[in-house]
Write a structure and sequence with these properties.
Blueprint: E1 2-9, E2 20-21, E3 35-36, H1 40-47, E4 53-62, H2 68-78, E5 85-93, H3 98-109, E6 116-121, H4 129-142, E7 147-160, E8 163-171, H5 173-186, H6 193-201
Parallel strand pairs: 1-4, 1-6, 4-5, 6-7
Antiparallel strand pairs: 2-3, 7-8
Helix pairs in contact: 3-4, 5-6
């Protein structure tokens, strides 16, 4: 099985990541990790099985040749003690113009493969990153063959008096499926589509 994981890597100049407790909130996660700097790492640990082919797509802005956060991601993945994964770095300039974002989308869909399960973390990255990420995952679901969006995650860091207090890892995949739900309702022959979508959301 091919498993493709997307994550963003923060700029070193913004902050250096430190391990946080792995605390799934609205789902269960079979991992031996108790803490991680990158939420995607316990997801990899829980889902990448022997015989699988794993690709971790690391999206990062670049304002210097090196990035300690990228080194931390590699070290955490290596600590899992597996060899059936590779990292594919997508490096983009530190800008948010339209051409750059379209270029990032193009680079992301070049990482997509048929017959694959997809996982993504939207904890880090620019404010525009989740929009591009969702578009790339939509491409994977609708254009690539035999694919499954298996999980999209967000780690919320709660702080008290300026210090990290706890972290909660959420599965937010339902936000991705909302678009498909809207498309479904839009194509229905019914008068009150607002009521229909509310009914479907309550199921």
């Amino acid at each position: 099985m091919k498993r493709i994981y997307f994550t963003a890597v923060p700029l070193e100049s913004n902050f250096i990541l430190t391990p946080k407790p792995v605390n799934p909130v609205n789902f269960t996660l079979s991992t031996s990790l108790t803490q991680a700097a990158f939420p995607i790492v316990p997801i990899v640990d829980a889902t990448l099985q022997p015989g699988d082919e794993g690709v971790i797509v690391a999206v990062r802005q670049q304002n210097s040749p090196q990035n300690k956060n990228m080194d931390i991601l590699r070290a955490e993945l290596e600590s899992l003690g597996r060899s059936n994964w590779t990292i594919r770095e997508l490096t983009v300039p530190e800008r948010q113009d339209k051409d750059l974002l379209l270029g990032l989308f193009t680079a992301m869909i070049e990482c997509l493969q048929d017959d694959a399960c997809y996982y993504a973390c939207m904890t880090f990255g620019t404010k525009t990153y989740p929009v591009v990420l969702f578009s790339a995952l939509s491409y994977a679901e609708k254009i690539r063959r035999n694919t499954q969006i298996s999980g999209i995650y967000y780690c919320e860091i709660r702080r008290q008096e300026g210090r990290d207090k706890e972290a909660g890892l959420y599965d937010v995949s339902a936000l991705f499926t909302l678009n498909a739900l809207v498309d479904l309702v839009a194509g229905m022959d019914c008068e009150d589509k607002d009521k229909m979508i509310r009914t479907m959301l309550e199921l």
